Amino acid sequence: MVSFRLGGSDGVSIEAAKWADALRALGFAVRRIAGELGTVEPVRPEDVILPGLAIGAGTPVSAPALASAMAAALVGVDLVIVENLLSLPMNLDAARVVTSTLRRFPGRVVLHHHDLAWQREHYRGVDELPPELPGALHVVINDHSRRELADRGFAAVTVRNHFDLTAPTGDRTRARAALGASDTTIVVFQPTRAIARKNVPAAVALAERLVELTGRPVLYWLSGPAEDGYGPTLDAILAEAAVPIRRGLWSPAPGAEAGTGAEAGTGSGAGTGPDGKLGIADAYAACDVVAFPSTWEGFGNPVIESIVAGRPLAAGSYPALDELRSLGVRWLPIDDPPAIARVIEHPDVAMVSANRLAIARHLDLADLPRHLAELLDRPG
Q: Domain limits at 14?
């Protein structure tokens, strides 16, 4: 498996890890080749770190040197799965080297596209990704991307992200205590980073409106850090908010220093995650509604994670999310606070049950090995 980074808590790493486990269940040995390896998964002896593959690689690496290292890392390999490195131009020099290397690779190649360059405003001028690789199998995580690839001459297969329906639930009581949320407080949780397309203003507006509609205190909790220069905008939005704010996935009790991001896992205080902090399962358990007002996502894992956790979801609209409706998944519109308030006060048990059945039918992680076996049986 080849990528900019693997083994972290970013979405691509998480989904790549699910594929790796499924491949191991099929009898594969898995080697990770990446510019950096995160701390969520242990580094194994067979893993290879090639800093020249990293996003914004700090130390320039010559193309011949990186090509030589890539070729050496692929010795004895039968199947290469490229996770997003040939989808987004976050390190074009690395993408060119990997493309050249794979053109000479005698085994099977799968390009697993989580995003595509033209789907990001600042990458739309890049037209060399994905590359022409005869025999490579292109896999996307939504039908919208599959159709867009077809328009550009690439046949692709859709394999949506899968989820663990047996994942343990978090500790609601301890997590809410760490947040400083009383029994009557409504916690609105947005499990995203802060960038423009995550639409933080819509989530804050929902929290403020719920105060009016319910007469209860409401707390807004944003799990991830500001990125892509969005920090000043986020600071201005939160400074104007009429509800208390919590920041960071492992947010401490009031008065302590707040955590700084979902991926960093920083912060202090009580909880049930690493080092006594709050983990993502605790965050879902602690909240009363998940706000996911994104205007664009390749998939949007929190949509399904919130359903697995049994939490009502208030979401925006984007193509990949709309596709989930055809699978039987239902949610509340982020722009309908009265309906959201009603579900918080009177949970919709039927919707929760129907959503879990839909996920079990279409997106159960236990089925991923079978789906990948079927995928790899396809001709190149």
A: 2-162+366-376
66 and 141 part of one domain: yes
User: According to the model, what pLDDT value does residue 255 have?
Assistant: 39
Looking at the domain assignment, is residue 287 inside a domain? yes
State residue 61's pLDDT score: 67
> What is the SS3 string spanning the chain?
CEEEEECCCCHHHHHHHHHHHHHHHCCCCCCCEEEEECCCCCCCCCCEECHHHCCCCCCCCCHHHHHHHHHHHCCCCCEEEEECCCCCCCCHHHHHHHHHHHHCCCCEEEEEECCCHHHCHHHCCCCCCCCCCCCCEEEECCHHHHHHHHHCCCCEEECCCCECCCCCCCCHHHHHHHHCCCCCCEEEEECCCECHHHCHHHHHHHHHHHHHHHCCCEEEEECCCECCCCHHHHHHHHHCCCCCEEECCCCCCCCCCCCCCCCCCCCCCCCCCHHHCCCHHHHHHHCCEEEECCCCCCCCHHHHHHHHCCCCEEECCCHHHHHHHCCCCCCEECCCHHHHHHHHHCCCHHHHHHHHHHHHHHCEHHHHHHHHHHHHCCCC
* Confidence band for 320, pLDDT divided at 50, 70 and 90: very high
Residue 380 has a pLDDT of 58
- Judged against a pLDDT cut of 90, whether residue 140 lies above it is answered with yes
For residue 37, give the CATH number of its domain.
Answer: 3.40.50
- 167 in any annotated domain: no
Domain count, the chain: 2
Say yes or no: 194 and 226 in one domain.
yes
- Say yes or no: 58 and 195 in one domain: no
Taking only the tens place, the pLDDT of each residue in 87-135 is 999 999 999 999 999 999 999 999 999 999 999 888 888 999 999 999 9
- The answer, as to whether pTM is greater than 0.85, is yes
